[in-house]
């Protein structure tokens, strides 16, 4: 028997007014209430101790993958490390911290570097009003977006050290502790510090913003990537990029200063005039806090002598702080991909008059019904969840700009406590044009329509990742989007997000 039709209501069209999981009313992670816990600390005249993320090896490296000698580690509060601990010293900056030696979380810290540029987003992640001052009780909280919901994460301020030194991320100002506390809160969400080892920058960018994520392979996209990055910067987007893995191993530094298999923050996009010719530049930051590009437009490049004094003073820096400029041409040669995350996708189009709209669907692949596998499984593929969309003709202000008018994102969620234990499926989606004779059908599109039919668009290859996305063009009409795992009987919850720059499109099941 075929699975019954399911009416799916987009998240932004649901009749319920439940605000749980929003920034205003975030979910309490592990049922810990920051205000109540802090109040209890003052009532009982104690400093907070987090029993759900204890100061022992289970919170650092439960499976002993990092090679740390746990007997050497002491968990110390900042007041035991320095005499005058501060949460923030002279504002939040990308130069405040450097990556620790024991943990490969450059993907997370590259995202933090991008986060420091956006105060509004930073204040969402690290709520204001926290300090080591009069209201100090050894308790802090941070907020992250996780699979469609905002969560509030409570931690105590005990940090792992060896010989009084922080073993993971550390501040370049000795008494500043926001980077270490932010890293600890994210480690708690991931299950442990070791669960943060290795990852994709897109994961943290999304968890910081809950926004729109786009991903481009620098050498393969036909989009004017520098112009898009320039618009994204003006839209206050967070951007990060990753280098090629190379033939040897990750973290190998090349002769030109670039580290293979490494994540970087994108911290600036600028155009200079060199010998009467425009040059598109990109500024990049190494989360190690050192190690820089040594080619054209690097700190000591003679090309800076060929631009105006105004441009040189604005851009050039000789500090060995891990940040450097390079041309867009060199950027695409040395960086494999770029991830951009923004609260609104309006930056995708070059018209300031065009506005993108969005809908988010939550569903799941269920064993025996909708976990039907990819399109290669011709007899069962149609059983996958189906989503209909109607694309209307573009308004005048949205036409004639970038041809792509649709962005589809698919994210899977296995809801496991420890991030390293999550085994993502290879996922993707297919887009089919619905013929006129079926546009008024209320039920699922049957197998006789999908059997052997080639999709007109889709995610391309099925990818073993938390999220896949595709930016493409659709003509006005009705379409069916079918998200799937590559193999049948693979079960997980998922979020399908659909963005369109058409003002008047509607969606129905």
UniProtKB/TrEMBL annotation:
Q: Which InterPro entries match?
A: C2_III (IPR033883), Calpain_cysteine_protease (IPR022684), Calpain_domain_III (IPR022682), Calpain_III (IPR022683), Calpain_III_sf (IPR036213), Papain-like_cys_pep_sf (IPR038765), Peptidase_C2_calpain_cat (IPR001300)
Residues forming the catalytic site = 106, 262, 286
A family per Pfam: Calpain_III
- Provide the residue span(s) of the region labelled Disordered: 1-22
Instruction: Tell me which Gene Ontology terms the entry assigns under biological process.
Output: proteolysis
Q: Which PROSITE patterns match?
A: CALPAIN_CAT (PS50203)
This protein's record includes keyword Hydrolase: yes
Per its UniProt entry, which superkingdom is the organism in? Eukaryota
Gene3D superfamilies, alphabetically?
A: 2.60.120.380, Cysteine proteinases (3.90.70.10)
Q: Which CDD domains does the record associate with it?
A: Calpain_III, CysPc
Query: What residue stretches are annotated with the Calpain catalytic domain?
Result: 47-344
A GO molecular-function annotation? calcium-dependent cysteine-type endopeptidase activity
Q: Where is the composition biased (Basic and acidic residues)?
A: 9-21
Family assignment from sequence similarity: Belongs to the peptidase C2 family.
PANTHER family recorded for this chain? Answer: CALPAIN, CALPAIN-14
What protein name applies here?
Calpain catalytic domain-containing protein
């Amino acid at each position: 028997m075929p699975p019954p039709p399911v009416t799916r209501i987009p998240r932004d069209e649901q009749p319920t007014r439940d605000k749980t999981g929003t920034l205003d009313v975030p979910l309490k992670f592990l049922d810990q209430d920051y205000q109540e816990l802090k109040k209890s600390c003052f009532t009982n005249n104690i400093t907070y101790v987090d029993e759900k993320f204890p100061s022992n090896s289970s919170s650092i490296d439960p499976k002993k993958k990092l090679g740390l000698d746990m007997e050497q580690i002491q968990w110390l509060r900042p007041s035991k490390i320095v005499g005058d601990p501060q949460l923030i010293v002279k504002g939040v900056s990308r130069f405040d911290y450097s990556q620790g030696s024991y943990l490969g979380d450059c993907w997370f810290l590259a995202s933090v570097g991008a986060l420091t540029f956006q105060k509004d987003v930073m204040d969402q992640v690290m709520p204001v009003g926290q300090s080591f001052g009069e209201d100090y009780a050894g308790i802090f909280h941070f907020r992250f977006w996780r699979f469609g919901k905002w969560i509030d994460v409570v931690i105590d301020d005990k940090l792992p050290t060896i010989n009084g030194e922080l073993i993971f991320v550390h501040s370049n100002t000795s008494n500043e502790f926001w980077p270490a506390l932010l890293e600890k809160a994210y480690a708690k969400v991931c299950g442990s510090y070791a669960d943060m080892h290795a990852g994709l920058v897109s994961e943290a960018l999304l968890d910081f913003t809950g926004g729109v994520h786009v991903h481009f392979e620098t050498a393969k996209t036909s989009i004017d990537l520098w112009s898009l990055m320039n618009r994204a910067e003006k839209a206050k987007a967070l951007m990060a990029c990753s280098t090629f893995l190379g033939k040897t191993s990750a973290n190998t530094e090349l002769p030109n200063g670039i580290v293979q298999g490494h994540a970087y923050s994108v911290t600036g996009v600028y155009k200079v005039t060199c010998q009467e010719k425009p040059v598109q530049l990109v500024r990049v930051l190494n989360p190690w806090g050192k190690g820089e590009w040594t080619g054209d437009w690097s700190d000591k490049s003679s090309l800076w002598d060929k631009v105006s004094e105004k441009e040189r003073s604005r851009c050039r820096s000789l500090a060995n702080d891990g940040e450097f400029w390079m041309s867009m041409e060199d950027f695409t040669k040395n960086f494999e991909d770029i991830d951009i995350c923004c609260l609104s996708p309006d930056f995708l189009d070059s018209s300031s008059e065009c506005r993108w709209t969005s809908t988010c669907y939550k569903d799941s692949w269920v064993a025996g019904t909708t976990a039907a596998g990819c399109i290669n499984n011709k007899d069962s593929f149609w059983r996958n969840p189906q989503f209909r969309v109607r694309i209307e003709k573009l308004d005048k202000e949205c036409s004639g700009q970038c041809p792509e008018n649709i962005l589809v994102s698919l994210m899977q969620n296995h809801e496991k406590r420890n991030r390293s234990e999550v085994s993502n499926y290879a996922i993707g989606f297919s887009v089919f044009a619905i013929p006129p004779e079926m546009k008024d059908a209320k039920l699922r599109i049957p197998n006789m329509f999908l059997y052997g039919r080639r999709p007109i668009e889709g995610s391309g290859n099925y990818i073993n990742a938390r999220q896949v996305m595709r930016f493409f063009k659709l003509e006005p009409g009705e379409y069916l989007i079918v998200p799937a795992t590559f193999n049948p009987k693979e079960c997980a919850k998922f979020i399908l997000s659909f963005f369109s720059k058409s003002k008047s499109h509607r969606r129905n099941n």
